[in-house]
Amino acid sequence: MEDMRRCFPVVGPMIHESGTSPRHRPIDDYDAIVSRLSSICWDHYNDDEGYDRTSRRRRRSSSSSGGHHRHSLYVGSLGPCAYVRYRLGGSLLRRTHRACGGGGGRRWTCSTMTTTTTTTTTTDYDTERRRGLSMLRDAARIADLVLESSDDLRITLLEGERVGALALSAVVRHALGDRASANRAKDDLLDIGASSRRRIVLYGRCGYLHAIAFVRSGTNDDEYGQGAAARIVRAVLLEGERTSIETRSTTSGDMPLLWTWHGKAYLGAIHGVVGILFTLLCFRREVSSMGGAMDRIRTTITNLDRHCYASGNLMPSLGNESGDDRLVHLCHGAPGHVLLLVKAYEVFDVVSFLERAEEIARGVICRRGLLRKGLGLCHGISGNAYCFLSLYRGRRLWEQRTRESSTSGETISDKGDEWIRWAHTFARFGLENVNELFHVPDHPYSLYEGISGFVMLLHDLGDPDNSRFPCFEP
């Protein structure tokens, strides 16, 4: 069994004070930890084929049987080998660009929660720039290898091998300045279309919308895929209205929009209503073209509170009042609900959405979010910690809006620091328990189940203003 603790220095215990959010002792160098852990992930994969060396036979058989695909962003090679390189390489280029243009970069230190101005020589900047370009080129090469070897027909960003590879190819080549290749990948992605009748994020047409949103964000092209997105958004909304009407006799009838999967109205972010609503809010222009659709979305989000347990945790499915209140992760439970509420605040500018998200986070995720299922994004510690980063950005947006609307010039308190502290606390717990947590999931090196998601969390803690839940928040 690999000793993952060799990758980073020993850290001190967390400090808790009654009635306050946690503080913590300094951790020497998060950047070095990210570099070491990402290298371990890359060494684990055979980049020429993209197989997980520990489960090659299982991945080959699962690809033909419809299970998790060996090259997907979700649990396959694209996550660690291409997406992580894209994010890390892009950050290096942006850092050197800011520093060389302005004389310094604004960075958060993980030990003090304050900003510092980095002082780095021109030679160091040149080295970082070359490293960043090398990572991006490797990411592009791996995406090409997947496109050459895969005939996968799944249409979602997370599960679709070809869709994920094309989306990554587009954004990586855009970052490299190869606009012609980026545009070809964008066109090929649109050609795949969206034939699935499923709506959910992991397997359905909302997953294809996530691919479009991913490319829009990564290429600074808000017009990309507008026609395809409008058609899918319309179909998803009409299905939501129809299902809501058809199920009113068996439900409370308080959900103007409702979708089912395998005959069940799941509520979570990966398999259900929360994820679909979040996706629709990423396409405000397309949604707004349908009269009253934004109002129905807003009412549905508000009424989700009626389908929470007493603790504030979201039920896994509609009508599950008698079920166990035990699932606290992205695919089922409070974390996805928090991400949706923060997004709703961003879109509707209604502060009660943000306040409700904070209430749920304090009552559920802070208390029960340190999971035993591993370090991953979908049902692990990293995914729950990303909720805190989302809340931090939500509070930063609230501060900005409050200042802009204020006429008295009063000082606006920084309420986001609480969530930064919680995010670092969860990261520290992961570092302290990495050996126990690393081997729990079936795909321990992957993005959504394994340590690659943890690598992304540690990376985003260095620049929380630009953090995003990988492949979920555009």
Automatic annotation (TrEMBL):
A Pfam family matched by this chain, by name? LANC_like
Q: Which InterPro entries match?
A: 6hp_glycosidase-like_sf (IPR012341), LANC-like (IPR007822)
Determine if RNA-binding is one of this entry's keywords.
no
Per UniProt, Zn(2+) binds at C331, C378, H379
* Keywords, ordered alphabetically: Metal-binding, Zinc
In terms of SMART domains, this protein maps to: LANC_like
Disordered: annotated segments: 50-69
Q: Where is the composition biased (Basic residues)?
A: 55-69
What top-level branch of life does the organism fall under?
Eukaryota
Q: What CDD domains does the record tag this protein with?
A: euk_LANCL
Q: Could you identify this protein by its name?
A: LanC-like protein 2
Q: Which organism is it from?
A: Cyclostephanos tholiformis
